[in-house]
Amino acid sequence: MLNIAAYHFVSIDQPADLAQRLHERAEAAGLRGTILVAGEGINLFLAGEDVAIHGFLDVLRQDPRFADLLVKFSHSRAQPFGRLKTKVKPEIISFRRDNASPLSGARAPAVDPHTLARWLDRGVDDAGKPVVMLDTRNREEFGYGTFTGALTLPIDNFTDLPEALQPHREALREATVVSFCTGGIRCEKAALWMQADGMQNVLQLDGGILGYFEQVGGRHYDGRCFVFDGRVALDPQLQPLVDDAA
């Protein structure tokens, strides 16, 4: 099975109509997983046969709004999702904060995986500032693994992050802070919000942990990355903890 994780921020006027069309296409292709649609974009976690997945993506990218959709791929021996679910939501990831969507302006500054790995090798960025990795995931997720020495916050929901971060802000003032998450969507929103809230020293890890694993592997990462399906967690070679989900 080919597994994909993808999100894309773009204005969608009729999210319910788009959700129905995507569901019908995915169902016809025999795909399972989750499709989330909101006025701010889409968020996909899907699995199926290689040809079916690529066919779905080819049709999706024919829509100019999704022509630049970036996708993270991994494989499993069995289907990790029990069924296909499609939902229309207020946000493609719930954060409930203003100034946290790229639709309101440019994306937050990002660092690519290879550059980050080089910084972590040295312990400082190109300007000589210390690098602090900020995990924007919840405690269950980072319990499976995180970057070495990362700042983790005792949260159960992404919406709790601003309050949990508050006691650390002064200590982070002189560092380059790199926010990260599973696939990039939460760290993108978090970085935008932090920037709007006065933290000008924040970057996002482009592509999240899964993108880092694809390009760099496990350098400076301890453990696995929790994923939201029957595989439970992936190692830096994108191999699942559980690979017999039906």
TrEMBL record:
Signal peptide: none annotated. Coiled coil: none annotated. Residues 127-221 form the Rhodanese domain. It comes from the Bacteria. InterPro entries: Rhodanese-like_dom (IPR001763), Rhodanese-like_dom_sf (IPR036873), TrhO (IPR020936), TRHO_N (IPR040503). It holds the Pfam family Rhodanese. This is Sulfurtransferase. It comes from Lysobacter arvi.
